Amino acid sequence: MTKDKKHQLIPRGFDLYPYEFGSPQQSGAMTVVPLFGLDQNDKFTSPLSGLKLSRVTGYGSVELANPASAQTEPGKEGLAIVPLHIGYIQDQAQNHALCRSAFIAVGQHLMFSDACCVQQSQGGYLEEQQQWFFILPLPLRFAALQLRGKESYSKLWNDISLLNQQFGLQQRGHLEQIITRQRAYLTQYQSRFELLNGQTGALFFIQDKLVGVEIAPSVAYFRELWMPLVCFCYGVAAMYVEQMRLKDKAPQPIPFAAHTLTQLRQHLHQSRLEKQEQVRYGLAQTPVETFNVQEEERFCDFRLKTALGKNFAGQFVEESGQVVYASLFAKPEYLSQAG
């Protein structure tokens, strides 16, 4: 790992000049702004259909494979950029999540010896029909990023325990207490928010505060990453805020006072304008930071880098200075201000 010079990065989008913004979508405490950029489906394999969990050797060691070849269908034959903080639910083995992103070339396998176990004991195993992959909940992501390179399967248990405690659950290192037992609630976000044609990324807001920037290298890549992001990563943070609102008996949204279809359209139009203004204000209030950027890995012209700032952190991939993948998220102290 080599140190790069300090970069002046704006967490509300790095250099988002090539991207177009869609209309904001809101449900409860979460707002999502779609991003549309260059679709490089011919260069990269997608994380669900192309990237495979090949084996787990003991605790804390996970091997991923990019088995694509020139004969596979489009979208599955390119370089694999492992999504930051991807986790796998598997039958008859403890569930793990990764602390970092990485490159995996076509036909190659890569062992992550610094993965973290997200089940503290065998009692947390999931049933076979519940297998899927997720992205670590937003409140855990900075802790996981800091632990990249450290080989200790139990290293995230304390942070998981504290997160469970915040939700009023048993204080132990079992992440499935949230992402499995609350799955029915969390997966509602997939239907509340619409993944649009041509979408390659999104800005995520909690309580009108920017908390995440997610950019994928292709439409197919983001399509497969969408549900784990909106449901299990940012959905967990939104769910917590919404539960606190109910506990505190916060005022609920007031239905439109419309009696005709024309009036309803007028109310909807005005509501969208107000939401756009809230998003603009939220972006304007997002602090501009100086990030310490470290190069972690290279593959041909691609550079994987870690960005650490006062309020945001994450990893991103550049090709000739242009961002092709990014996962930048709010750190815990800044995130707490959104609650």
TrEMBL record:
Residues 19-329 form the ARG and Rhodanese-Phosphatase-superfamily-associated domain. It holds the Pfam family ARPP-1. InterPro entries: ARPP-1. It comes from the Bacteria. This is ARG and Rhodanese-Phosphatase-superfamily-associated domain-containing protein. It comes from Coleofasciculus chthonoplastes PCC 7420. The lineage of its organism: Bacteria, Bacillati, Cyanobacteriota, Cyanophyceae, Coleofasciculales.
